[in-house]
# Entry
Amino acid sequence: LKKQIIANGSIFLDGKFQTGSILIHDDRIYDVITGETKILKSSEYETTDASGCFVSYGFMDPHVHFRCPGQEYKEDWQSGSRSAIKGGYTFVIDMPNNVPSATDMDVIRLKNSIACKTKINYGFYIGLTDGNSDDIGLMFSALNRENIPVYGIKVFLGSSTGDLLVRKSETIRKSLETGIMNLFHCEDEDTLLRYGSIEYKSIKDHDARRPSEAEVNGIIKILEAAKDIRSVANIYICHVSSKAELDFIDQARTDGFMITSEITPHHLYFDLENIGDSNIFKVNPPIRLSSDSDYLRHSFDKGFFDIIGTDHAPHLLSEKNSVSPPSGFPGLETSFYALYKMYEEQKISVEMIFKLLTAGYSIFKIEGRGEIKKGNFADLTIIKNIPFEFIASEAETKSGFSPFDGIKSSCRIDTVMINGEIVMKEGVLL
Ligand SMILES: [Zn+2]
# Structure
């Protein structure tokens, strides 16, 4: 029996920080002791001194693109999972816009055979198409019976990266009828086509080409499809980017729709006035106005959002510098630092950051994980008060660039444990 103790950390428990120690036996949390603990020299426990550190349950990211199969040159499960761990994440769920798209059982099985070789805890989403909606519920339960972790259905209402696109309202309704979590990329294709003639000359045009009106119109389509099945329709809105969209979701919740809303660190942090003009910042949905990001931060603190997703979407720098740059950028390694900086600037609360970085376990009903309590798997993230600067060219992701390049923090993601095994120590991956 391997015994470990994480001693005297500031442990995030029940929504607040409390000094205490965590005992770990093999892969599980054996006990949590609040208050100061005396560490005995002769102890049979291997000790990690966590005094002066935040200790959180391992971060969970419901929104990553690890690009397998088909685009391993952008990212693969080795580089992606290392990037996740470096960012304090111990659980990720991977999106289906691969080559080929993960819209049938065989591609998901293939993805599972790749992901299972890494240390990170993981899951997948199945991609919805106008062709597979009749079978999607059956595929979902069949994969779960094979012990392949699928946690939801991803629905692209507009074209983004990859060729997944749903056009028919009937498809959305059938998928929502299953009661399975449906994760929507809300930008509506018809609206995008209407603005598509605006020329892309610089990043500033991206918001004009893909206005928040597209997201609102997408949500209108979802609500229309769900209106008679409100009690079963499990709606998840990915990457809320604008005030208009947020207000619309707020109203829909009042009208009785079950909606989980996701926020990204980049939509909270950036706006069109503070990003300069590099294509690196091109992302779908686009970076909006400062009035939008102000409103998102204000709503973040009020508890409007349910979960933080990074939308980790790596490309190569050469692709981002090309004449038609793809949308998206990596986010796993910088998520906490961006959020923590906003806390230090007194824009958002630190408790809300930790709450939403670990909210995915309960949202996706992942058993045995999510809280620091007796019996749960020992997935932990320890953050130490050592100054840190993020350098994109030294990152684990293959992209080699980041919109957050050079971001400084007063603390560092120091130690990460997955299933009782320390996989990063003193900022170094093992
Ligand atoms: Zn995405």
